Amino acid sequence: MNKKARKVSVTTLREMKKSGENIAMLTSYDATFSALLDDAGIDVQLIGDSLGMVIHGQESTVSVTMENMIYHTQIVRHAATRSLVIADMPFMSYATPEQAMINAARLMSEGNAEVVKMEGGEWLAETIALLSSRGIPVCAHIGLLPQSVHKLGGYRVHGRDKASAEQILKDAKVVEAAGAEMMVIELVTRELAAQISKQISIPVIGIGAGADCDGQVLVLHDMLGIGGRYMKMCKDFMQGSSSIKNAIETYVAEVKTGTFPADQHGFD
Fold it and tell me: Which end of the chain is more exposed for a tag (fewer CB within 10 A), N or C?
């Protein structure tokens, strides 16, 4: 590992957005992969509640607990010396602003997370403002909300109709105004994601949202082709790679150059 490499912070990500440098982000769940991602040049490691599916073998992220998230964040953060480390707030751990503050504090003090991520738009404004005022950096997550999959009736593209697109754009502006440092936007149309990225000042990381976001994120196991899942928004970077590290380096390079995602990985 290059020990002289600059530590990535939320300020770094803002600078990257301003300069037009794409941000490369992947999920991470253990120390071995955390060190590998650091060496391969990943800017941000996300301890996603997707661990419920790819690590625990569950059908959704809903069963993941605070204890699960704290444990995995601890071990990822221990090995990540350069990447920014973000941890998901699990299902129903931020139902009220007060509950969110207590659990976010645990993720940071016990798990050593640097940023916490929460799913939701306009309704989260008060919570984001409270956490931000207490020194807790927040990454908002809008568009498809995996923790709400049962209410939504499955995984589908958002923003295709006018009302949905207008609400997602409003969500983006509201969470920015509330103090979010960055946001993930998932499974929305390319046109809408591009519009949001241009209209707000904080970094926008896309997943299934086209190439015009400020950065990209994928589930680690999916981009390595070992998740047993096929999704249009993903690409198997192990194909043609000589090693896992090489596959991650290729992902970083393709995100940085804008080669990934290509048109076939997005939605209209």
Answer: C
